[in-house]
């Protein structure tokens, strides 16, 4: 699809099933997608199409009765020590390696800002915990100690005392290259200070005060900013936003989306925005993956998708969006309903609802192919 050097995430043939008493829910059936370095990619589709299951599969957060049965989740990450791009298959990682990756290299912001912050801990403590878990705080601790000592030098003190303080500052400066001390008691204070700076980075008003508050004391928009600050605390290479603005009013939603785009430029994170809102995609994403019933239907640049969709399902989604310049009594709709994924249709999962379906559509699942340069679609009878 793209050069590996350009990609940060690549999913191939991902199949995730849920083994229920009623039968096997085939939630993801060979999902194919990629995220390029520095992109904001939208993952769109109807409720129940597998967007959130895809996100949870990437982080191996699928819980029983769910199980990832097949596929590769290739993470092309930058090694911080060498600066080289290394490729790992998240499916082959040990549990510890996945825990180390989660939050540090790949972070996620979940849908409901009222649900995910722990209600019994202060906001600053929760962000600081993530930082302490994944970051080497030695530099921050030494900076803090040196800063305190340098403040005392501003006072009028006798030369002997000044000499001892300067000697201590030199000693701390010599420790920067030493291995970190896991029992350093100042690490928590350093993490708390960095937590406040993260809250300030996401434009949280009165960041130091908010860090000392509990989640219930914040509005929905402030809680969402706090979750974004927590997700970005370790400068992840990938940030997944799973319907991160759904529970917010339109004004706050616009603020959060603008914030995400600013932060992407600031820290260079690649962003995956999971949504069913085509307006959010148009405003924030430069690439789109359209999903239908657990499969990838179409993948291309945002402008191309809105101008010339190739998959009949994508075209149906776009025509169902109301437009301000059109006065219609009734919007077009896609006939039929989303299939039961315990008994999905044979062949293309969209064929029972498609006006262009032929016999092959009913019998064989269409592969995701590049029908036009930079435009992939899984359809035997693409539009245009």
Provide an overview of this structure.
It is a single chain. With 384 residues, the chain is an alpha/beta fold. Among the domains are: 3-105 and 237-332 and 368-384, 3-Layer(aba) Sandwich (Rossmann fold), CATH 3.40.50; 138-173. The protein has 13 helices and twelve strands. The protein has helices spanning 51-58, 95-101, 123-134, 138-153, 159-173, 187-201, 207-211, 220-232, 250-267, 278-284, 302-307, 312-319, 359-363; strands at residues 7-19, 24-36, 40-44, 66-78, 85-89, 106-109, 238-242, 270-275, 287-292, 295-301, 369-372, 375-377. The strands form two sheets. The protein has an eight-stranded mixed beta sheet with strand order 6-7-8-3-9-10-12-11, sandwiched between helices. The protein has a four-stranded antiparallel beta sheet with strand order 2-1-4-5, covered by helices on one side. Helix 3 (123-134) packs across helix 6 (187-201) and helix 3 (123-134) runs parallel beside helix 8 (220-232). The chain is elongated. The two termini are 21 Å apart. The model has no long low-confidence stretch (mean pLDDT 87).
């Amino acid at each position: 699809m793209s050069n590996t050097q350009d990609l940060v995430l690549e999913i191939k043939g991902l199949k995730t099933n849920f083994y229920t008493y009623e039968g096997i829910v085939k939630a993801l059936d060979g999902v194919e997608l990629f995220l390029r370095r520095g992109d904001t990619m939208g993952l769109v589709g109807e409720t129940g199409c597998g967007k959130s299951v895809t996100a949870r599969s990437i982080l191996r957060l699928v819980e029983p009765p769910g199980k990832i049965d097949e596929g590769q989740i290739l993470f092309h990450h930058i090694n911080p020590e060498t600066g080289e791009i290394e490729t790992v298959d998240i499916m082959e990682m040990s549990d510890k390696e996945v825990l180390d990756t989660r939050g540090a290299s790949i972070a996620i912001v979940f849908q409901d800002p009222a649900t995910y912050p722990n209600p019994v801990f202060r906001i600053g403590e929760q962000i600081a915990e993530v930082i302490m878990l994944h970051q080497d705080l030695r530099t921050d601790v030494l900076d803090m100690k040196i800063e305190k000592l340098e403040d005392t030098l501003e006072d009028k003190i006798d030369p002997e005392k000044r000499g001892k303080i300067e000697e201590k500052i030199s000693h701390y400066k010599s420790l920067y290259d030493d291995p970190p001390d896991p029992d350093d008691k100042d690490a928590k204070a350093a993490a708390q200070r960095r937590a406040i700076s993260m809250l300030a980075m996401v434009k949280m008003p009165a960041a130091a005060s908010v860090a000392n508050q509990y989640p219930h004391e914040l509005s929905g928009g402030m809680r969402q900013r706090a979750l974004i600050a927590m997700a970005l605390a370790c400068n992840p290479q990938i940030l997944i936003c799973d319907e991160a603005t759904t529970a917010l009013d339109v004004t706050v939603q616009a603020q959060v989306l603008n914030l995400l785009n600013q932060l992407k430029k600031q820290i260079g994170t690649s962003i995956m925005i999971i949504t069913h809102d085509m307006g959010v995609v148009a405003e924030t994403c430069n690439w789109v993956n359209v999903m239908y019933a657990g499969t990838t239907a179409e993948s291309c640049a945002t402008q191309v998708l809105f101008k010339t969709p190739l998959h009949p399902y994508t075209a149906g989604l776009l025509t169902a969006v109301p437009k301000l310049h059109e006065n219609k009594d009734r919007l077009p709709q896609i006939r039929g309903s989303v299939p039961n994924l315990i008994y999905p249709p044979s062949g293309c999962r969209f064929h029972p609802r498609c006006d262009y379906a032929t016999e092959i559509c009913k019998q064989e699942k269409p592969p995701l192919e590049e029908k036009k340069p930079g435009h992939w679609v899984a359809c035997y009878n693409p539009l245009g």
